[in-house]
Specification:
15 helices; 5 strands; five-stranded parallel beta sheet; alpha/beta
Length: about 325
C-alpha cells in the first residue's frame, strides 16, 4: 500500500487543516525523508512549526511524531520491497525523473530566487576572496561553481574537507569577502557553525538550500531555495546545479571572458589538451550515410594526418580565443 492510500484511509485525514495538509504533502512527496527526519526537519520542509507536525500526528490517531514516523517507515520499507512507491514513480522511472527535474528547475525561477542569484553573483564579483563550504552531496554543485568561477578569474576557494580545515579558510575572511554555503537535506553542526563564523567576520553570506526555513538563513544575506525532490524518495540536485549555472551566467562579462581566455591560452601553452585524439576522431567521424569519412582536409599520410589536424585545431582555436577577447 502506498503512503498516499494509507493516509486517505486514516481517521481524521478528511478534517485536516491547511497547515496539516502541508505536513501530509511532505509524507507523500518525500516519503524516504519523512521516515528518518525529526519533527523539526519535517516542519522546515513543510514550512510550518514543530507543533503543527505533532498535532498532525495526533489528528491521524498517533500519540506524537515518533509513533507516526515508525508507521511511515514500516509503510515505506514495505512499498520498497513490493515495488510500490506511490504516485512519484511510474513504470518508466527515467522519464519520471526527467519530468520531476524539469518541474524542479521551473519552480526554481521565482522572483525571490532570481534576486538572490543576481545578488550572489554580485557578492562574488565584489569580494576580495570567496570561500565555499558544503558537505555530502552539496559538494557536487559547490565544485562546479568553484571550478568555473576560478576559470573566470574569481578568487574562489573550496573548503569541502574536514571541519577543522574549513574553519581555517573561513577564519581568514574579512569584511566584504563572500561565503557560500551549499546544504542538502540534513544540516550538520559544522556547516551551521562555519556559516555563522563567516557572518561574524563580516563576509557576505549566500546560502543554497532546499529548506526555506533553514537555520542557515539566520546568518545569510542572500538565500536561494532549490527543490531537491526526486522520484521514489530519492534526492535530485538538478535544480541546485541549475542555480549554480545561473550564478555563473550572471558572472559572465567582459572581464571574466578575458580571464577565461587567458586560462585557455595557458592550457594551450602547457600542451594539456589531447588535440591529436580529437583530430583523429574528427578525421574518422561517421558521415550522414553511416560510413567513415574524412572530415578534415587530408594533409599527408594516414600516420601524420591526426598530428597535422591537431596542429590545425590548436591554431584555429587559439585564433578564436584571441579574437573573442576584447581590446585592452
Amino acid at each position: 500500500m502506498s503512503i498516499e492510500a494509507w493516509l486517505a484511509g486514516r481517521q481524521g485525514h478528511n478534517t485536516l487543516g491547511s497547515q496539516a495538509e502541508r505536513v501530509v504533502h511532505v509524507f507523500v512527496r518525500a516519503p524516504q525523508f519523512a521516515t528518518y527526519s525529526s519533527a523539526r526537519e519535517v516542519a522546515e520542509r513543510a514550512g510550518v512549526n514543530v507543533s503543527t507536525v505533532v498535532r498532525t500526528a495526533q489528528q491521524l490517531g498517533f500519540e506524537g511524531w515518533t509513533d507516526l514516523r515508525q508507521e511511515l517507515r514500516a509503510l515505506y520499507l514495505g512499498s520498497v520491497a513490493s515495488g510500490d512507491l506511490g504516485p512519484t514513480l511510474a513504470t518508466d522511472a527515467a522519464a519520471q525523473m526527467l519530468r520531476r527535474d524539469a518541474a524542479n528547475v521551473t519552480s526554481l525561477a521565482t522572483e525571490e530566487n532570481l534576486r538572490a542569484i543576481r545578488a550572489t553573483a554580485q557578492a562574488i564579483r565584489a569580494a576580495r576572496r570567496t570561500v565555499i563550504v558544503s558537505s555530502g552531496s552539496g559538494a557536487g554543485p559547490a565544485h562546479i561553481l568553484g571550478h568555473l568561477g576560478a576559470i573566470m578569474g574569481c578568487d574562489i576557494q573550496l573548503a569541502l574537507g574536514s571541519a577543522t580545515a574549513a574553519a581555517v579558510q573561513v577564519a581568514r575572511l574579512q569584511e566584504g569577502d563572500c561565503l557560500l554555503t551549499f546544504n542538502v537535506w540534513r544540516l550538520t553542526r559544522a556547516l551551521r557553525g562555519l556559516t555563522r563564523m563567516g557572518h561574524e567576520r563580516g563576509a557576505t553570506g549566500c546560502v543554497l538550500t532546499d529548506l526555506p526555513s533553514s537555520p542557515l538563513t539566520e546568518d545569510a544575506d542572500h538565500v536561494i531555495v532549490t527543490p531537491i525532490e526526486g522520484v521514489g524518495g530519492t534526492v535530485s540536485l538538478t535544480a541546485m546545479v541549475a542555480a549554480t549555472q545561473a550564478i555563473i551566467g550572471e558572472l559572465t562579462d567582459t572581464e571574466t571572458g578575458r580571464a577565461s581566455g587567458q586560462v585557455q591560452q595557458a592550457w594551450n601553452n602547457l600542451d594539456l589538451m589531447d588535440y591529436e585524439a580529437l583530430a583523429s576522431g574528427l578525421s574518422t567521424a561517421p558521415a550522414a550515410d553511416g560510413s567513415r569519412a574524412e572530415r578534415l582536409p587530408d594533409t599527408g599520410s594516414a600516420r601524420d594526418s591526426p598530428r597535422r589536424h591537431a596542429g590545425a585545431l590548436r591554431q584555429r582555436w587559439g585564433r578564436q580565443w584571441k579574437q573573442a577577447q576584447p581590446a585592452a
